[in-house]
């Protein structure tokens, strides 16, 4: 949940990968939810970033707040943190700010923030798609039931790995 898409998919790591992770943590703190959980709404399935993004686009960002924060908070500060969190998790690497910029955004409230673009891993699928994925995963685990064979298929390797 904290890995940037370029690292997760291509193995490419940079300062912007850390920015992505920071953004995920900010959104987790504000919502009180884990990034790896799945949230259902309007017959769709989405991750934390998709959930926050949808509320942002629907101009209801404060609806994502953790109930512990709702008791006492500065609306301006929370909105700014949500905005910064979304800037950090943008899908396109070059659209994310540097950590230096993030610190400037947090320390200087007079700095105008750019508009965030769609976050990475924005999931908006029907429930049926999720059920198919679960069935495929279940079939795979049954196929290797009791077997000590571990395997990995990615761009780096298509070989089978056997434990020693």
UniProtKB/TrEMBL annotation:
This is Protein kinase domain-containing protein. Residues 1-86 form the Protein kinase domain. It comes from Glycine max (Soybean). PROSITE patterns: PROTEIN_KINASE_DOM. One of its GO terms (molecular function) is ATP binding. Pfam families: PK_Tyr_Ser-Thr (PF07714).
């Amino acid at each position: 949940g904290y890995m940037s898409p370029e690292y997760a998919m291509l193995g490419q790591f940079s300062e912007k990968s850390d920015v992505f992770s920071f953004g995920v943590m900010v959104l987790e703190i504000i919502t009180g939810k884990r990034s790896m959980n799945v949230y259902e709404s309007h017959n769709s399935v989405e991750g934390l970033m998709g959930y926050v993004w949808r509320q942002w686009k629907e101009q209801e960002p404060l609806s994502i707040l953790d109930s512990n924060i709702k008791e006492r908070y500065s609306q301006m500060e929370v909105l700014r943190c949500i905005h910064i969190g979304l800037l950090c998790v943008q899908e396109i690497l070059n659209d994310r700010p540097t950590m230096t910029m993030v610190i400037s955004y947090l320390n200087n409230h007079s700095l105008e923030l750019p508009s965030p673009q769609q976050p990475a891993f924005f999931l908006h699928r029907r429930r049926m798609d999720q059920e198919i994925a679960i069935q495929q995963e279940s079939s795979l685990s049954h196929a290797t039931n009791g077997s000590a064979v571990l395997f990995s298929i990615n761009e780096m390797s298509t070989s089978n790995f056997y434990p020693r």
